[in-house]
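Lecture notes, continued. The same structure-token format from the folding unit now serves as the input rather than the output. Read the line below as a description of shape only.
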């Protein structure tokens, strides 16, 4: 069983302009593509359509101006997908930002959280 994450933790969405964001959902999609080698399999695991997954990948490509996923056309061995070095860097940077933000949230709120219940009046 994995270690439980400390709470509170930061949930990050990075805004790049009008309705263009990078958040944990798009990053998770990239991670699943890296793990499975397949956009279809990653989409299934996230309970979304292949088309929706491609639209999200395209949004991330647009943010960074270059592909984050490379595809191989199907054939005898079937097609596939892999994360580009840019995609790997996007995943790493986002997770690093997320971890740093969580540490900051925990540090800033630690004293307040340890005082929970102390200031309440008894009925």
């Amino acid at each position: 069983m994995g270690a439980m994450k400390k709470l509170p933790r930061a949930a990050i969405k990075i805004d790049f302009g009008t309705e263009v964001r990078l958040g944990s959902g798009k990053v998770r999609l990239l991670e699943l593509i890296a793990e499975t080698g397949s956009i279809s399999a990653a989409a299934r695991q996230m309970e979304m359509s292949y088309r929706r997954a491609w639209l999200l990948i395209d949004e991330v490509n647009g943010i960074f101006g270059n592909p984050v996923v490379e595809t191989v056309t199907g054939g005898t061995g079937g097609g596939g997908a892999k994360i580009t070095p840019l995609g790997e860097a996007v995943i790493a940077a986002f997770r690093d930002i997320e971890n740093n933000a969580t540490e900051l949230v925990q540090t800033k709120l630690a004293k307040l959280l340890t005082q929970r219940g102390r200031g309440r009046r008894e009925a």
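Point for the exam: The chain has one domain: 22-112.
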